[in-house]
Structure formats: structure tokens, C-alpha cells
Q: What sequence folds into this?
């Protein structure tokens, strides 16, 4: 089975055979996590870097009134918290939203690998820049995009992220996110999410079925979202 971490970094920088061997060795001992299992909770001591090999994770915070805000989705190939050990404790939680296989790489191991492999270091820093671009796009969505634009924009983003690691099939891709999870990510209610998804389906742009998305008309979905892929890195091609 392909190592999605290697695939993702290969899409950002040119890796040598030696680089690939090092990455595969660093992620060779993953653990399995069930859906809705927290890998780390807010307030915990910070630990190793997490690398998602299969499944999906999310970053989230619980508000005082008990509601949840999801701040990021982590897909196969994503790594998170490269420099988290610099902080005293976690300021958010990370949870599996679907069954996941996740490798942990210690800070020492990661630093050594990046010192010995400049291509890996460049790939990791580029990946961090992409993550920051995604965060900015989410902030814009929450602040200025309409509900329909917000949903369409997220689907465009997730589709392109899935495609770059080989997880799409002719406009279809697995999306193991319930409407409740989407609502928590987009600052909407599940009822509102349901109405928006119906609107996008009736518009002939996309259709969401249990566990997967079909992009019916990529051009129409991009136009509705006002989507510009530049924040995901220039190597990604347009959806249309």
C-alpha cells in the first residue's frame, strides 16, 4: 500500500530514493484509532508529530456552552504539530473522525531527518505553508462567504487535497464526514447543511451520498464557491 505521507511530500518537492526510505522508516510503526477517538486533548502535554497514513482526523475546540468548532481536517498524508513541543500544553484537541492509522514521529527523530535530508525539510516547511493557507481560507469562509459558497468552497478544497494523494476517481471521492461534522466545521447547523447540500445537488454542481461526494459539474461548483486553488500550492492543477 502506498505511503500517503511520501505521496504528499512528493507533490510538493522532489524526493530522492534515500529521502523516501527515511520517510517510510519514520512512519513504519503506526497505531490504529477508532472513529471519535481523541488522539490528544486540549490541556495535555504536547508530544510527537502525528502523521496520518489512513483515515481522517480533525482539530477541534469545545466552547463553554458545549458546542464544538472544528478548525481543520487532516487527511491521509497530512502531518501536524511539527513544532508543537515548543508549547507547554495543547490548546486544542485532535480526534479521529473515521477509523485511522496514525504514525508518531518524535521531535528528535524529525529534526535529525530534516537535517540529514534537505528535501524533506523543504517539503515539511512547504506543507506547513499550505496548512496556513488553508486556515486563512477557512477564516475567510467563516467571515465573508455565504453558506452555499462556504460548503462549495470546502468541497473544492477537500477534493483537490484528496486528488493530490490519489484518493479521487473521475469526480468521486470518499468523504467520511457526517452532516453534523460538516456543520461543526462550517459554523452551521445540521439542518442548514442539509438544505445547502440539497441546493447544490439541485443546481447540478455536486451530490453527497453516505460517505462519498460526486462532483457533477466541477466548473459550476468552482463558480459557486469563487474557488481559487492558489493557497493549496501551485503544483495542483485546476479542477476544471
A:
Amino acid at each position: 500500500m502506498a505511503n500517503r505521507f511520501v505521496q504528499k511530500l512528493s507533490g510538493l518537492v522532489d524526493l530522492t530514493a534515500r529521502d523516501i526510505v527515511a520517510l517510510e522508516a519514520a512512519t513504519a510503526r503506526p497505531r490504529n484509532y477508532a472513529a471519535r477517538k481523541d488522539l490528544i486533548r486540549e490541556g495535555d502535554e504536547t508530544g510527537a508529530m502525528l502523521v496520518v497514513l489512513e483515515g481522517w482526523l480533525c482539530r477541534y475546540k469545545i466552547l463553554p456552552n458545549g458546542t464544538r468548532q472544528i478548525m481543520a481536517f487532516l487527511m491521509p498524508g497530512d502531518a501536524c504539530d511539527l513544532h508543537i513541543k515548543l508549547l507547554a500544553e495543547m490548546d486544542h484537541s485532535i480526534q479521529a473522525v473515521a477509523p485511522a492509522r496514525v504514525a508518531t514521529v518524535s521531535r528528535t527523530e524529525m529534526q535529525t531527518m530534516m537535517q540529514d535530508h534537505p528535501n524533506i525539510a523543504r517539503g515539511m516547511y512547504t506543507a506547513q505553508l499550505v496548512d496556513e493557507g488553508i486556515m486563512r481560507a477557512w477564516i475567510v469562509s467563516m467571515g465573508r462567504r455565504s453558506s452555499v459558497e462556504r460548503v462549495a468552497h470546502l468541497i473544492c478544497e477537500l477534493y483537490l487535497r484528496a486528488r493530490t494523494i490519489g484518493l479521487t476517481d473521475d469526480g468521486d471521492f470518499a468523504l467520511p464526514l457526517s452532516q453534523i461534522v460538516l456543520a461543526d466545521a462550517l459554523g452551521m447547523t445540521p439542518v442548514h447543511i442539509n438544505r445547502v447540500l440539497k441546493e447544490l445537488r439541485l443546481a447540478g454542481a455536486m451530490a453527497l451520498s453516505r460517505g462519498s461526494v460526486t462532483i457533477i459539474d466541477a466548473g459550476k461548483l468552482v463558480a459557486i464557491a469563487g474557488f481559487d486553488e492558489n493557497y493549496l500550492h501551485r503544483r495542483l492543477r485546476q479542477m476544471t
The CA atoms of residues 11 and 137 lie 21 Å apart. The chain is about 40% helix and 20% strand.
